[in-house]
Amino acid sequence: MSKWRPSKYKNIYVIPxxxxxxxxxxxxxxxxxxLRKDDEIVFLGDYIDRDKNSHLVVDLCIDLQKHYLNQVVxxxxxHESMLLDAISPSNNxxxx
Length: 96
What we know:
Elements: E1 12-15, H1 22-32, E2 40-43, H2 54-68, E3 72-74, H3 78-87
Parallel strand pairs: 1-2, 2-3
């Protein structure tokens, strides 16, 4: 499978609403990884819910951030906010 590189310079890949679908996420990442030095990935939240593999998605995002340091941005989505509210409603000031 060929790599998807819209620009020969800097690419910013935006990935929204994974919802635990690890296999689909891996298909996307197989097309864009490895990142080049100026490329970035921005995840728009909602990593969890709707699939039993939510934990694998979170683990993969953490691994990507460790490997690519400042090239991977993970934004908290409303599904993550709801989870945090459910486990500790008094400590989470983020409202969706």
